[in-house]
Amino acid sequence: MTDTLAIIPAAIDTYRQPVVYMHEDCHICRSEGFAAQTRIRIDLGSRWLIATLNVVMRGGWLNVHAAALSASAWEALGASEGDRARFSHPEPPASTSAIRAKAYDGRLNEADFAGIVRDTLENRLSDLELAAFFAACAGERMDTRETVSLTRAMQAAGATLVWGGRAILDKHCVGGLPGNRTTPIVVAIVAAAGHLIPKTSSRAITSPAGTADTMEVMAPVALDTAALRRVVEAEGGCIVWGGGIHLSPADDHFIRIEHVLDFDSTGQLVASILSKKAAVGATRVLIDIPVGPTAKVRSAHAARVLGSMLISVAEAIGLHVELHRSDGSAPVGRGIGPVLEAMDVLAVLRRNADAPADLRTRAIDLAGKLLDMASGSGLRSGRDLAQSLLDSGAAEAKFMAICAAQGGFREPAPAFQSTEITAPTAGKVAAFNNRLIARVAKLAGAPRQKSAGVRLLVRSGDRVEAGEPLYEIHAETPGELKYARSYAESQPDIVTLSESG
């Protein structure tokens, strides 16, 4: 079979980007004119995908008569050892003309966005082409009509859950605030009140922990749609990883590129949030927008722009959305990193005397607003109910029941290795840099190492003396602990002390 090659697993993680590895002397490379970074269609029986070519040079690890597939490509093709596949040039992606139009400040319609989403999911667009699309949409270059079109296209590309006409509650935080792990507490309170709240959450990409990472140290989160539905029908709520249930699937591809570029489009952020809320079947959604100088949303103006577009797009797609603007000036709770954040969540649910008060207050505020939205009465009594459900232990019991339904509860355990960062001088804690604190936690290994991260020992306004601890760094390996500490010591602005303190 001279027109095929044996395929083998490369055992290389390229995240969601399918990659194929071929020898530079491969006869198919020569006959087809394939070169490094060529986009290649791979056919295996009735299954196919488009992957990016990486060329292995002479003397390398790959046989000339085989092609190796990255982990994501191998899984997507459903390949097995001994399979042989065909390799060819794919049809050029039709959506590149829409991307070029947007780059020249054109306005795209729903069909244009549907084409971009479709070509993204089929891996027809290279990372460079996707990056060009995001650059063309960066800042506020997408108007409301375009954002509505993108939201609809993203939702339509995946499944949408249907709950039989019942009111479905949901909440979302736009992010940028380390430790702000209110979701498990809010879900437990709202479900304990008898409402339905099927919460899908993401894993971290550039942060020290996503909600799914934190929940995963306490219970399984990689549920499929049928399992999600069983949990919600039984307990009223869930906290699961959204990547396993094919809801707005293009979003994961978009996020992968956006975070590398490190800039946001307001329109794409709105489409990302609302397409997932619509796909999960939510009817009433509360969106938390933390605002602070080192948060994701840094000014009142930016919050107004984002909030206005969220409301307008939600109305256009039939979602009832309310906004909650919160303080984004400092991390929430004490823990930053999956295990440390999970310990904070459990401390609040268990009503421990030393539970972080700010996390408890934020969770009660958000749950109360959701309960008010659910009642539809116009009365503002939800916060009292939320607090009573937390104080009575009903929320804790519901959380444990949700964990059991998702596969069983696990008690999180902190890392064995830690080190303290101390105050260089006496003073009063005046400010935290959210981005630098998150960076320390990531250098310590979070979220890849679940127990790694940062544990804050002071809050804004606290008085400290020289040499007193400001925060702890937790890590699972000595090397990561040393690396994170070295970085922390080089960044005096992580915690700002006022001289007049």
Description of the molecule:
The strands form five sheets. The protein has a six-stranded mixed beta barrel. Strands 12-15-17-13 form a four-stranded antiparallel beta sheet. The chain has a three-stranded parallel beta sheet with strand order 7-10-11, sandwiched between helices. It is of the alpha/beta class. The protein has 18 helices and 18 strands. It has helices at 27-32, 71-77, 96-103, 110-121, 127-137, 144-156, 183-192, 211-216, 225-235, 250-261, 266-279, 300-317, 338-349, 357-375, 382-391, 394-406, 434-443, 478-489, and strands spanning 4-9, 19-23, 39-44, 47-56, 66-69, 84-88, 169-173, 197-201, 237-241, 284-291, 320-327, 335-336, 417-422, 427-432, 453-456, 463-464, 469-475, 495-498. The chain is globular.
